[in-house]
Every structure is written in structure tokens, then in C-alpha cells.
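Reviewers of the previous submission asked for a worked example of the structure-prediction workflow described in the proposal, so we include one complete record here. The input consisted solely of the amino acid sequence. No template or homolog information was supplied to the procedure at any stage.
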Amino acid sequence: MAEDVTRIHVIFDLARERLTARKFLHEMAEQNWPVQVTGASKREDLDPRHKEVVVTERMRAATVALVLVTPMSGVSRNVNEEVKFAKRANLNLVGVLVAGSTAHTNLPEGLHRSRVVGWDWGALKKELMPKRDG
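From that input alone, the workflow returned the following C-alpha cells.
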């Protein structure tokens, strides 16, 4: 059964959206989906030359990078940096519109609008859960 668990790394704006991320993760836990959060955005006191290697390697424990998209995500330094790292770790990128963001909100570079859903558990489940045959 463990292979059916979707492993997620959550990316969010550290400067502005800690409470939103906490609320989102709490509500996601209540869905009782077969998901495991393997990591999330956090402040890193690392030399910039080592940061990418360390963070990318940590992200490899996940299969999906779930980006909490807010009105400021497109300009958030840590969100843009972590999306880049997630792509280098070969994670699937999925975005969720939160905190007043809309279909017209600027997205972080590398996150495609076609992989962004609203804060709607049904739509998000379709993006996160592995497709099962039969």
C-alpha cells in the first residue's frame, strides 16, 4: 500500500503565508487521503552555494511539489527559488490558489497555469492522487 502514497513537498511564501500554509495542511490532513508531507518551505541558514544542493536533495523524498499560490507568490524569492529546485529534483509541480489569489494571479516561474487549481479538495485530489488503472 505504501507505493500508493503520494509524497508531497509543500512550497509557500515564508515571509507572508505561514498561517495560510498551516491552515491548508490541517485541512488537507482532514481529507484522509493517502498522502505524506515529506517537507515544506523553511528558512535555511546555508551558504548560497550549498543551499540548492541541500534543498534539492531533501525534496527528492517527494514526488510532488505542492505550491501554495498567493497574490505575492510570483515575486516571492523563496517560492521562485524552491520551484526551481523542485524542477531540478524532477518533482511534479501542482499549484493551489490560496489567500485571495485568482486565475489571473502571477505565478512563480516554472509553475504552469494548467497545473493550478483553486482551494477545492475535489480538484486538488485529481491532481495529486496517482491515476489507477481499472
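The helical segments are 18-30, 48-59, 77-88, 121-128. We consider this example representative of the routine output the project will generate in years two and three.
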